[in-house]
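Quick check before the chapter quiz. The format below is the same one you will see on the exam, so make sure you can read both the input and the output lines.
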Amino acid sequence: MNSQSEFLSRIASHFRQFGLLSGLKLLLLTRLRNLFYSERFLFLELHPADLHPADLPPAGSPEDGVIIRALAADEIQACIAAIGRVQRENETVFVAERDGELLGYARTQLGGAYSFGKGAEVVLPPDILMLKGLHVARAARGRRIGRFLNQARVSATHTTGKKVFVSAMSENRPALKNLWRSGFQDVAELSRITVLGKPVSRQVRPCGSQARVPQWLKDFAR
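Here is the expected output.
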């Protein structure tokens, strides 16, 4: 694929993910981010009682020959191939593979500093498990691999006894729909504005009057 075709493919994928209006807004902000940049992220908490099994793909693999599994701590080369570095002590890396080819990956993190967006960070208490970093190779998209990776992470959390959270850009409706199907509920929206590289506004907005926003999220606005 030549550079022009690859560029057009990335643009098409961007608009499929975010839609026309949100996609245009994000592209504009990307151009202006050194002068002015704003971003909004939804944080969601897992509520297994609200899981809708009919909306999830069946157990198993998204198609014949595809294997989804968690990497063992000693699978160093496989981890480097997936995420570009070794797995941290508080992380678990899930991969989707077919005949040795990496099709996608996703991670979880237990406690510690969690980074998101353009340099934003919250500090997770040790009993908080954060889902993060789901990625599907462009050539493998449209095969429900992302949904199976997410299902694998959600299934693995049922026996941990930890509180499970995840974040996604507020404009990323496809990702949010998959998370809602997986039993996640909106807790709070975090927004941030930077001017000339310096943060000028940080806000935490509860998602509804009944939302219980944990202190570690409230601390983001300080």
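If your answer matched, good. The first strand starts at residue 36 and ends at 46.
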